[in-house]
Fold this sequence. Notes:
Elements: E1 13-16, H1 20-32, E2 40-43, H2 47-55, E3 59-60, H3 63-68, E4 71-74, H4 81-89, E5 95-99, H5 106-113, E6 117-123, E7 133-139, H6 145-156, E8 159-163, H7 169-177, H8 179-196, H9 201-221, H10 226-233, H11 239-249, H12 252-271
Parallel strand pairs: 1-2, 1-4, 2-3, 4-5, 5-6, 7-8
Antiparallel strand pairs: 6-7
Amino acid sequence: MTTPNESESGVRLAILGTGNMGSAILAGALDAGVVDPRRVVVVDPDPRRVARFRDRGCRVGSIDDLATASCILLAVKPQVFPEVARLLASHPGDRTVISVMAGLNSDRIATAIGTGTRVIRAMPNTPASIGHGVTAISTTSDVPAADRKFARSLFEAVGTVVDVEEDLMFAVTATSGSGPAWVFRLVEAWIDAAVEHGIPRKTAETLVHGTLLGAAHLLDRSDQDAGSLRAAVTSKGGTTAAGQAALDDHGFDHAVRQSIAAATRRGRELDGPA
């Protein structure tokens, strides 16, 4: 007798898409022992991507195998979803879909795939590839508790997990999903500025990368918030105060807010009409 979240074939998870994010999630889950590789089916048109998981004991399957699974992780680009949905809809069944596709809401996913589909939406970010991601999860009320727990364990294997209401997913995508890009952009400008003042590029990279990493660790481990830690570094009339005044003069905070707002708006545009 199978459990409500396990298919008759014994498959616990079928995953479509083993690109950067899909591979990170599955590798993390396997490393953490969240799922037995013998109960995982991997589906991807690129044989090179699935080879590493075949070597770890996962089964490489087809879209038909995906369609018969009771728990499916969709780790594909949103543009691919309409075709995938048609294929899954042609094999109706009772299933929970975990989607990491940005910009597609749960109603749209469930409607496209058909009756019996329950949806968990997740928005991880790229540091998941090294076990330091942060993932926001939202679920529909009909998702079984066992599937909610399982989905959470998948993403906890690659970092931190927070629960959010689905209507916040666009803002979450702009904040943490796109967030690494904001950090990398800052680092690029920071290094270039150091080079302009005579520091060799390799030395500048070491200084900036080390400062960023150290500040992140301090923020994570301190009982003070970012504002308090910033104030502690800023002596009145000193160099840090002068630099922060320049940030204010050039609208640094405003630029950050506008980037989050623009990314949030774009997410809503990509989702389109329900």
